[in-house]
Amino acid sequence: MTPPGVLGVRHDEQREAFVDIVDGQQLLSDAREIKTQDEISLLTQSAGMVDAAYYELYKAMKPGMRENDAVALVAKTLYEMGSEYVEGVNAISGERCSPHPHVFSDRVMRPGDPVFYDILHSYMGYRTCYYRTFAVGRATSSQRTAYRKAREWMDRAIELLKPGMSSDKIAAALPKAGDIGFASEMDAFGLNFCHGLGLGLHERPLISRLTSLREPIELKAGMVFAVETYCPASDGISAARIEEEVILTPSGAKVISLYPAEELPIANPY
């Protein structure tokens, strides 16, 4: 039924009379910071599908494989497992690693190449952001050193991720821009940081040297982070890029990205 007195009234006047319109974006962003158990289950399943994609990549990578071949293999694996949307696969190899773009090419992988990937897909709406670095056939000492540094920075950050911790303390433990060859924290933003993950690829909360040192927040159980680290190698072209997806439980951080990354994986070693 039409409310009394509405006939002949303009639409905008009706809206003002019967609907209170407010900006709900901030409220929803706040609500999405803490995940429910169902959301955590879906995020875990989504990450598990990427575990499988990395296993297939590890078996397939060899000299002669192209970056776009690797992307096709990942997409095939994920869609066969039930992914609803493979948003993107960053596949970066050889001299493209430092500094690195975020798009794949038809570059052919060669013996000794560093290769890293970021696999972004969605399962029932819940996303992944999950880097891994490999070497093809063999690795140099500079590649191993860069990987070790990236892993140490990551482990240090994950150890601090727990309910009640202030985000400025995690940010302070991350490498400075100068440590990876950048002039400012703005230039280095997005390389060594922690970002929220859920229905969005990047959502609250955010931990970064660019923002968290001056605007810290308190961490809470149920938050989910993608923890990213990047370290260029001394050879000028290689680099390590690692990422773990982490759930904050009442007792501390639980890693749900399970493809092994403690040491630099060597695909088809010889």
Describe it:
The chain is an alpha+beta fold and 270 residues long. The protein has a single domain, classed as Creatinase/methionine aminopeptidase superfamily (Creatine Amidinohydrolase, Alpha-Beta Complex), CATH 3.90.230. Helix content is 31%, strand content 23%. The protein is built from seven helices and ten strands. A hairpin with a 2-residue loop joins β8 and β9. It is globular and about 70 Å long. The mean pLDDT is 93.
Secondary-structure topology with pairs:
Elements: H1 11-18, H2 25-31, H3 37-60, H4 67-81, E1 85-93, E2 114-123, E3 126-127, E4 130-136, H5 141-160, H6 167-173, H7 185-188, E5 193-196, E6 203-207, E7 224-232, E8 239-249, E9 252-255, E10 266-267
Parallel strand pairs: 4-10
Antiparallel strand pairs: 1-2, 2-3, 2-4, 5-6, 5-7, 7-8, 8-9
Mean pLDDT: 93
- Helix-residue proportion: 25-40%
CATH homologous superfamily title: Creatinase/methionine aminopeptidase superfamily
Main sheet attributes: strand count, strand direction, barrel closure = 5 strands, mixed
Shape: globular
Supply the number of structural domains: 1
Range of strand content: 15-25%
Structural class computed from helices and strand pairing: alpha+beta
What is CATH's topology name? Creatine Amidinohydrolase
Secondary-structure element series: HHHHEEEEHHHEEEEEE
The CATH class designation is Alpha Beta
Question: What is the first-to-last residue Cα distance?
Answer: 78 Å
Annotation field: number of helices: 7
Identify the quaternary structure here.
Answer: single chain
CATH architecture heading? Alpha-Beta Complex
